[in-house]
Amino acid sequence: MRVLVAASLSVASLLVGCTAGISGPQGGQRLGSDPRAGSPTAGSGSQTSGGGTSSSDPDGGDDWQPGHDGDPNAAPGFSPRLLTKRQYDNTLTLLLKETYGVLQGEATFAKDLATEAPGRSGFAAAPEISPVSIGGYMNASKAVAGAIAPSLSKLLKCDVEVGNDVACITTFATEFGELLYRRPLAQEDVHDHVTFYKEELSQLGNTKTAAALALVRLMLNSPYFLYEWEQGHLISTRKGNTVRLNAFQIASRLSFFLWASGPDQPLINLAKSGGLDTDEQVAAQATAMLKSPRAARGVDSFHAQWLDLFDLPNLNKNTDVFPNWSPALGQAMATEVQLFTRDLILSGDASVLSLLTSTRTFLNQPTADVYGQTGVSGVDFKPVNVDPSRRSGLLTMPGFLASASGPDAVKPFHLGDLLLEKLFCQKLVPADPALIASAPIPQVDRKVVGERAYLEALTGQGVCVGCHTILNPLAFGLGNFDSLGAWRDVDEDGVSVNSAATLNGVSFTKPVELGKILAENEQVQACIAKQWFRFATDSYETAADNHSLEHSWQAAKSTRLDVRKLMLGFTATPSFLYRTPAQDEPLQ
């Protein structure tokens, strides 16, 4: 127990993704690969003369599309996963602020942790344990200890300097450990924690207070806190080749999905009492959890990761071009997205149609100024209806647009690539750089024809055509917005903006029409279902997940994909409640 290892744009940049091999959805042709086909087909993301590929599966295939059911008894395998920074801080907020009352404000200790990046699921994943990440966890635990030290007796529920300190620490390890590790501690676990405390006293000569704080740091560096752990700890039931997660593992899955944090004491108590033993009980609890204020954390976490809105306050914007830019404005943009998505998904109709077309949002004066919206003053956010001819839904919000743009200019192909990945679940694979460099320079003057016409001339030739048939409508369909997300009628070259295009055989003339087309596109709806599934399970879907995805899709699709029904549907599926054990895994 003494040591714990926790375990102006260049041609090259304009052509990024240009030869990445998507043949576009002409005449309604589906973008992507058909998992039921025996070989690649046109539009499947197969190899092209451009040298690149497009695939919705990192391993080269797409396992589920609407109407494609699977084995109802199948379940995926899982490995322990480190908590993300949001999960780490949200869990400590729940415990130290909301449960024990020893922390003022929200926890912000995860800033000391190693930088995370999108994992295979596309959502945030902590890096593998390394000396650097271990140092981050150690520093974070020291920061926690420093923050709670003035209220230590409140956390311990006793004063170790007075009375029976061993009894105090025993009770603390039992009760706090149960919440931190998300399961009851076995007697030997409690004994190990108390032994550590005693050794801090006898071997290191620490005071009782210092020894207790050292124990807190130890617990915060335990793999049982730092990992979502779904192996071991007693198997609940077996079903063919799969095993059902036990009640405490299900409690953790629910809380990390719906609350983006570990479970609270009532949820642990429910697991203890058998209240999560049946599918019906789990469904009832999931419904109740979505009604909790903590559900806002889960909704916030999903959208920040899905649309790459991680750090809006720290965006690099050119203040010579945008003198009104500031970290405070970036934070206000993030707040708008949060308030909009919370209201829609937790209180509204939760439909993908509303997500991408609603004209109701929440603004304060700084964000209203970006919108060009009058009648809004002060720093407090108010519900407003925006100009329906210019704005509708998440994709026309400054937070998304500013995040997807450069410091002083829009990045249309980056935006198109982002929409392709996030809304169509297709990812461009970079092509041979030599092909990009060999693309001829168009014989048009950008200052005369404008940004869009120049880029279309650049990408409308040779190996670029296949990819940009689908990429360009997405890239230019939101062309009426500048790098800060404000409306513009002319581009950086002073030429009138043209946002008209045709996507999947459907023509549109302005951004709000693009949003409606996307919202009603079944492939987009299916992709959003996949994105929520990946977030819920922290994994990329496989063939073993087909039934779970289809089951949830069928429950939600009748109302233009009701995201709330989708979320609740996932919690009742084999992919959420069961797993396939690893080969030779010892089962308890």
Task: Please render the helix and strand layout as text.
Blueprint: H1 11-14, E1 54-55, E2 81-82, H2 85-99, E3 117-118, E4 124-125, H3 131-148, H4 152-156, H5 165-181, H6 187-202, H7 208-220, H8 223-226, E5 227-228, E6 237-239, E7 242-244, H9 247-258, H10 265-272, H11 279-290, H12 295-306, H13 327-347, H14 352-357, E8 360-363, H15 365-371, E9 382-385, H16 398-403, H17 412-424, E10 427-428, H18 433-438, H19 446-459, H20 464-476, E11 501-503, E12 506-508, H21 511-519, H22 522-537, H23 546-556, H24 563-570, H25 574-577, E13 578-579
Antiparallel strand pairs: 1-10, 2-5, 3-4, 6-7, 7-13, 8-9, 11-12
Describe the overall structure:
This protein is mostly helical and 588 residues long. Helices cover 46% and strands 6% of the residues. The strands form six sheets. A three-stranded antiparallel β-sheet has the order 6-7-13. Strands 1-10 form a two-stranded antiparallel sheet. Strands 2-5 form a two-stranded antiparallel sheet. Helix 22 (522-537) crosses helix 24 (563-570). The longest helix is centred in the middle third of the chain and has 21 residues, at 327-347. The radius of gyration is 26 Å and the shape is globular. Residues 1-53 have low confidence and may be disordered.
